[in-house]
Amino acid sequence: MRKIFVLFILLGCGGGGGGGGPEAPPPPVPVDPPIVVPPDLETSYEEFTLLFEKYCIKCHASDPFIESEELMRASDAKVLISTKAMPLDPEDLGIDDRIKMLAFF
Ligand code: HEC
Predict the structure, then answer these.
(1) Is the CB of 76 under 6 A from ligand 1?
(2) For residue 43, which of 21, 74, 81, 103 is within the disulfide window of CB 3.0 to 4.6 Å?
(3) Cα 59 from Cα 87, distance rounded (Å)
(4) pLDDT at residue 2 above 60?
(5) Is 26 in the pocket of ligand 1 (CB under 6 A)?
(6) Which atom belonging to ligand 1 lies closest to the Cα atom of 65?
(7) Contacts of 71 (CB under 8 A, 6+ apart)
(8) Got the DSSP string for 9-69?
(9) Domain locations in the chain as residue ranges
(10) Cα angle 59-104-34, degrees, rounded to a multiple of 5
(11) In this predicted structure, which of 12-21, 32-41, 67-76 has the lowest mean pLDDT?
């Protein structure tokens, strides 16, 4: 799965233009320095949901992926948060809460 993500990112960078449609999120771009989640940090789905309500729900209130933990895990949320593609304005989510959200995955 991780390999597939990496491949996706590489392809996303090389592609340039076309595809995606008007509603597609900005292509994930690797951030520098990369966001490191401490291995002993774990965020429960409940805690993640609180953060999601704070930073994400205003745009995603009716998206299917918010309906269960499984759907959230299966979504692109991890890669989008870790590449700062989400939230749309990266300034809206500070590094501490960003790390907390990533510790859910
Ligand atoms: C200002 C509005 C806005 C905010 C805030 C926002 N998003 Fe998004 N997000 C979008 C838009 C627009 C898209 C692309 C259209 C779509 O798929 O809903 C998107 C797409 C996504 C997708 C892919 C959708 C799918 O169906 O697979 C995920 C996952 C996601 N966002 C997660 C998040 C998370 C997690 C946060 C909070 C950290 C967040 N978003 C905050 C606007 C927003």
Answers:
(1) yes
(2) 103
(3) 9
(4) no
(5) no
(6) 26
(7) 64, 65
(8) HHHHHHH-SSSS-TTPPPPP---SSPP---TT----HHHHHHHHHHHTHHHHTT-GGGS-H
(9) 2-102
(10) 85
(11) 12-21
